[in-house]
Amino acid sequence: MHKHPQSPRKLRWRSAAAALAASVAASAFLAVPSAQANEPADPPAAQQLPSPTPGFPLPSKHTQQAVDPASDFTSKWTRADAKQIMAQSNPSVAPGQNSMSPDVTMPEIPEDFPAMNDDVWVWDTWSLTDENANQISYKGYDVIFSLVADRHAGYGFDQRHWNARIGYFFRKTNADPAKDKWNYGGHLFLDNTSIGNTEWSGSTRLMQGNQVNVFYTATTFHDVAERNAGGGGIAPDAAIAKALGKIHADKNGVTFDGFQHTKLLEPDGKMYQTKAQNPGFAFRDPYTFADPAHPGKTYMVFEGNTAGNRGDYQCKGEDLGYQPGDPHAEKLTDVQNTGAHYQTANVGLAVADNKDLTKWSFLPPILSANCVNDQTERPQIFIQNENGKNKYYLYTISHQFTYADGMRGPDGVYGFVGDGIRSDYQPVNNSGLALGSPTDLNLPANNPSGTISGQQNGRQFQAYSHYVQPNGLVQSFIDNVNGVRGGSLSPTVKINFKNGVTQVDRSFGQNGLGPFGYLPTNKRIGGEGLYK
């Protein structure tokens, strides 16, 4: 596994805690061997959470304590927590510079980045993994999966979403990640065989033998032609689905076949918002995993929204999360009157009811961001052993423009840590922000699809859809670098984290930037024959 590529090359190419029951004893976690967790990230230089900033509210108190995954406790990412993003930002930078700490800022991507593929745009990307999120090399090949769209079909980069298909790429495990390009294998599924007419993000697991389960978002747009022509607007349908197929590898490369598709889940309207309740609902991005604390069970996290008709939600004191008597606390009525109740993101949880993973049941959300943010996309559970105890890091991604009024934060990765799948999650760095594109948070956000305007940092939307890998490597795609649009994979960066503290590792690669599209494998399956 290439953890610290240092190849001499020029980057010339072209983005209510007290009420928690102690239902899971700490000893149960202490007994779990670290081998069942992810390969841990390196620790940050400092492992103390940031001190309070004068003039800002205190963050909410979180115990990190775990409860049973089937219980109805939902941790809150509160406004008091999210206010720490600005508390830890520099109010005095020159307009348009980066105001965030270097510890949470992604290094700058060069404008002359390479096109990963000349025929398709590439964005949300994930690896072939096992149930413990190890990244699998299969018969000597590394394999990744990406959302792709045709660069030459006549529609623009921002119209890719309703034309998205899952494609796959492969290259030899012993390839030089700084020089050897990924080989594009084409669409993963045959045309007109998936559950929806559009395929959105998910995850892919190697099962027994050469079987693979692809969990994905089956999205159905009813007005693709109109949207491609610049119109449309009918809300799509969405379901979580899976496809069981087979992977093959030989001297010529990697192929897939035999996929059988099964619809798994649709939002219930009780815990997870439906299209009827909100045409802009979110229900997507399935990520499945095994929990060493609950052997024999398979869980799934996904992006959702709090159930109920859009606009009906009433902000609660627990959503604000201010400590009693805090002089900088907002008033509940003031927050409600700003329209913050329209922001109702959550991270959902489901459990498999059979070994074939074809039947699933909803569990209550493990995290809500009501009155804080409206999107918690592509969630992942990253389990790493810290001081003999497994800690559960929930990573998700979000945008500037999905924050509620009075909140401010960059496009990027947000993290939360607890003692189990369902915990009173502590936001990393007290704020939740783990990694953001360079942004001047003192200036208002701009539309990510439009021209970079005014004085704002030209790299505020340089990368998105981050995917956290073993050892803290983080992959994303390039969206907009100083007005140059992307559609290719970003340079991989590395975050070190422990004890709820994260830090960008600027010793990694070239000034913090590793190779473009670097998703190294850390486990080999299927024989050694092609490694040499």
Could you give a short description of this structure?
With 532 residues, this protein is mainly beta. The protein has helices at 26-30, 79-87, 224-228, 317-320, 332-337; strands at residues 66-67, 75-76, 120-129, 136-138, 141-150, 165-172, 183-187, 198-206, 211-220, 237-250, 253-265, 284-290, 298-305, 344-352, 360-370, 377-386, 389-398, 412-418, 422-423, 426-427, 433-436, 463-468, 473-478, 480-481, 484-485, 493-498, 501-504, 523-525.
Name its key features.
5 helices, single chain, Tachylectin-2, Chain A, mainly beta, 10-stranded mixed sheet, disordered N terminus
How would you explain this protein's 3D organization?
There is one protein chain. The protein is mainly beta. The protein has one domain: Glycosyl hydrolase domain, family 43 (Tachylectin-2, Chain A, 5 Propeller). It is 5% helix and 35% strand. It has five helices and 28 strands. Strands 3, 4, 5, 6, 7, 8, 9, 10, 11 and 28 form a ten-stranded mixed beta sheet that branches. A five-stranded mixed beta sheet has the order 2-15-14-13-12, with no helix packed on it. Strands 16, 17, 18, 20 and 21 form a five-stranded antiparallel beta sheet that branches. The radius of gyration is 22 Å and the shape is globular. Its EC number is 2.4.1.10. Its cofactor is Ca(2+).
